[in-house]
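Worked example

This section walks through a single chain of length 74. The input is the sequence exactly as stored; nothing has been trimmed or padded.
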Amino acid sequence: MAQSAAPVSGSPAIPEIAPISLKAIAPWAAFVGVLMLVLLYFVGAEQGATALISGEGVHEWVHDGRHLLGFPCH
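Given that input, the structure is written out below as tokens.
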């Protein structure tokens, strides 16, 4: 028969995890926010009159993502 899983006395305690301060997270949050806005621009608006990069290269790289997110491109 199976034996019951009882806690073993004398087992090491799980160490507490120190909380991360908002001051430490803020620069990373700002970086990720700017990165997401840049990615949203390239997926949603990088074509035609608002294009920063000439040609169709960026459009072709993000074409399926554009349709997946509901942006029209044709």
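What to look for: Residues 22-44 form the longest helix (23 residues).
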